[in-house]
Amino acid sequence: MNIAVDAMGGDHAPGEIVRGALMAAAHFPDIEITLIGDEEKIRPHVTGEERISVIHTDEVIEADDEPVRAVRRKKNSSMVRMAEEVKEGRAAACISAGNTGALMAAGLFVVGRAAGIDRPALAPTLPTLDGRGFVFLDVGANVDAKPEHLQQYALMGHVYAKNVRGVEKPRIGLLNVGTEDQKGNETTKRAFALLKETNLHFIGNVEARDLLQGVADVVVADGFAGNVALKTIEGTALALFSLLKQTLTSGVAAKLAAAVLKPKLAGLKKMMDYSEYGGAALFGLNAPVIKAHGSSDANAIFHAIRQAREMVVHDVIGTIRAELERA
């Protein structure tokens, strides 16, 4: 199995990207990794792993590039060439920590949308206090969604949670402004009715304040609401950890308490670390496309590659296609 990786995407490229790829190649003997980007910058970080190859490109899609225009004009960019490796069948999946919009465009225009899928969805797995985590989609691939799209998101999230995350009977929740059945706007009300008609384990509406409690294994939303919720969670977490750090370094007594609590705090940080869950999968395409966080370190890239590998091993794309045909 070959996995293509954009070595030039993200804040710490190419060094951390290559280190993560080396970790993955050493851990998973059944994969080969193709690093795509400026070979002169990549090679110094590659240390003799025979299952890692490099494809040279001389263009990079930058964070501030307009996504669709960049994908169409920068044909020799690391991201576009990565997507082409998948399209041509030389790679089974691809990963980038680069421009999110451009990756979605490359996924849609190059890798291609899967038959039967109306709208792709961007789906990270977020940590929860019970340690289980939950799949959240859509968090920005499409700001608007019809009720039928939300129903498809639920099905795709169900397949991923069951086959990759090992949840036997994933609980599906619909993000809403209240838990009562008739809450929300016309889109969520209609989506609620459609989800009730499926064979999925739909538990009803869920509120944003309960997401990190582990109320559901899969939460579906339109890309606007999902992105707002995601950014709020990220911002709140950063603020809390910053406040905690400030408090525990505010004096001698606080520093002594911090020293005692250090192992517990490290465990808490690990439990809530996004990198342990991989990247955000772009569901609804012909192959697994993973968006790693822009600030990904080697550990985050390792887990994104692990995630892509598991999606291929468990044939998530084929299973989604089969489920859609049965629906």
UniProtKB/TrEMBL annotation:
Main localisation: cytoplasm
Enzyme category, top tier: transferase
GO cellular component: cytoplasm
Pfam families: FA_synthesis
Gene Ontology biological process: fatty acid biosynthetic process; phospholipid biosynthetic process
Record's subcellular location: Cytoplasm
Swiss-Prot/TrEMBL keywords: Acyltransferase, Cytoplasm, Lipid biosynthesis, Lipid metabolism, Phospholipid biosynthesis, Phospholipid metabolism, Transferase
Xref: InterPro entries: FA_synthesis, Phospholipid_synth_PlsX-like
Keyword Cytoplasm attached: yes
Pathway(s) it belongs to: Lipid metabolism; phospholipid metabolism
E.C. number: 2.3.1.274
GO MF assignments: phosphate:acyl-[acyl carrier protein] acyltransferase activity
Superkingdom: Bacteria
Reactions the enzyme catalyzes: a fatty acyl-[ACP] + phosphate = an acyl phosphate + holo-[ACP]
Function recorded in the entry: Catalyzes the reversible formation of acyl-phosphate (acyl-PO(4)) from acyl-[acyl-carrier-protein] (acyl-ACP). This enzyme utilizes acyl-ACP as fatty acyl donor, but not acyl-CoA.
Subunit description: Homodimer. Probably interacts with PlsY.
UniProt similarity note: Belongs to the PlsX family.
Protein name listed in UniProt: Phosphate acyltransferase
